Each structure stands twice: as structure tokens, then as C-alpha cells.
Backbone:
């Protein structure tokens, strides 16, 4: 089974940037979908953004549009989420997840993913 590991979280002031990494291992990746979700204290986990592992499709949640972008290093089996202009409301634990395939219009759903990382904390505060 494919496994994913997140890294790159930290503490940043409002307006700052962070780059999260999601490294995958343990299986074929080319047809898979990768998503980022986050959970703020006392709130349910919510969709942030998703991409096909090969980069052919991307979907950003409303909170990420215009501020977050994907990039990838295929040699390292790693996808990055560049987060710019961070706001205090971006604070939370960010989870990387991988699913077996890209399903149009459904990648905001947790049920489309079958492997999840442990999460990385992002704190945006002055």
C-alpha cells in the first residue's frame, strides 16, 4: 500500500509563506490523486487542495485559491504545496492523503483517499 509522509509545517506570521511536502512510497503513483486537508482546533477536517500525481489536474478549495500552488519532484516522489499570504485562519494540522485515482468533481471528499499521513502543524500568528 502506498504511504505518505508530510513535512514542512511550522510557525509563521500573517502574510508569510510555508511549503508543505508530501512524500509517497510503496507503490505505483502515476494514476493516483493527492489531496491536502486541514483541521483547525475544534473544527472538522476540511479540504484544501488536490492534484493528480502527474499534475494533469488540480483543484483548489476556496480558502486556497490564489494563494496555494502545487509543485512536484518526481525523482523524490514528492509533491509540494506552496502556501503564500498565510492568514491566522490557515492555522491547523495539515494532512496529506493519496487516493487510487482522480475522480472529477469528487476530490474534495475524504472518502476518495485510502492512505493518510500523520499530519503537520501549521500555525499562523503574530
Residues:
Amino acid at each position: 500500500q502506498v504511504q505518505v509522509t508530510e513535512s514542512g509545517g511550522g510557525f509563521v506570521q500573517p502574510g508569510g509563506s510555508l511549503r508543505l511536502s508530501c512524500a509517497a512510497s510503496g507503490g505505483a503513483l502515476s494514476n493516483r490523486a493527492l489531496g491536502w486537508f486541514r483541521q483547525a482546533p475544534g473544527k472538522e477536517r476540511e479540504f484544501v487542495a488536490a492534484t493528480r500525481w502527474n499534475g494533469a489536474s488540480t483543484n483548489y478549495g476556496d480558502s486556497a485559491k490564489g494563494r496555494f500552488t502545487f509543485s512536484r519532484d518526481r525523482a523524490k516522489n514528492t509533491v509540494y504545496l506552496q502556501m503564500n499570504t498565510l492568514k491566522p485562519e490557515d492555522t491547523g494540522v495539515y494532512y496529506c492523503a493519496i487516493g487510487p485515482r482522480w475522480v472529477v468533481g469528487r476530490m474534495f471528499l475524504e472518502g476518495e483517499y485510502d492512505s493518510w499521513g500523520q499530519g503537520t502543524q501549521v500555525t499562523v500568528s503574530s
Remarks:
- The radius of gyration is 13 Å.
- The chain has a mean pLDDT of 95.
